[in-house]
Amino acid sequence: MNKKGFTMVEVTLSITLILLLALLVIPSLIDYEGNSKQKLYDSKIDLALDAAYKYGMDNLDLLSNSCTDVTIGTLIRLDYISGDDKSGTMLTSPIDNTSMNNVIICVTYSDKKVKTKVK
Q: By three-state DSSP, how is residue 99 classified?
């Protein structure tokens, strides 16, 4: 006997397999996007820390063992780092698209070393 088409069992099994694969793949893709945004945010913070280090090296007379606060906005204004918006005056968080200009970086000078950390 020559049949054309698929049986209902074959169609149901095929749809079930496709749905199972989708259930496995979609959460991974969503998690991948979140991880990539966090990595991009971390790299922007690292750039800001490097800029704060350069700021500290240029301004050793302003630093002490205690924390000297500097914001990312100040580092942009003083040309230690570039903004990533159209005007070049703001660093934008890739996580929620808000300004990172108010992030405070603590710059200290002790043991003849400049140290930086995010507050």
A: strand
State which residues of the chain have pLDDT below 50: none
| Coil/strand/helix, residue 115 | strand
Q: Determine which helix (DSSP H) or strand (DSSP E) holds 117, and give its type and residue range.
A: strand 113-118
**What distance in Å separates the CA atoms of residue 74 and residue 15, rounded to the nearest whole number?**
57
Q: Which two tokens stand for residue 44?
A: 């922007």
In a domain? residue 88: yes
* Domain of 96, in residue numbers: 8-118
Report pLDDT digits (tens) over 10-39. Answer: 899 999 999 998 888 888 777 777 788 899
Between CA 110 and CA 63 the distance in angstroms is 9
93 near 40, Cβ under 8 Å? no
Cβ within 8 Å of residue 114, ≥6 positions away: 53, 56, 57, 60, 63, 107, 108
Whether residue 3 is contained in a domain is answered as: no
Amino acid at position 57, single letter: M
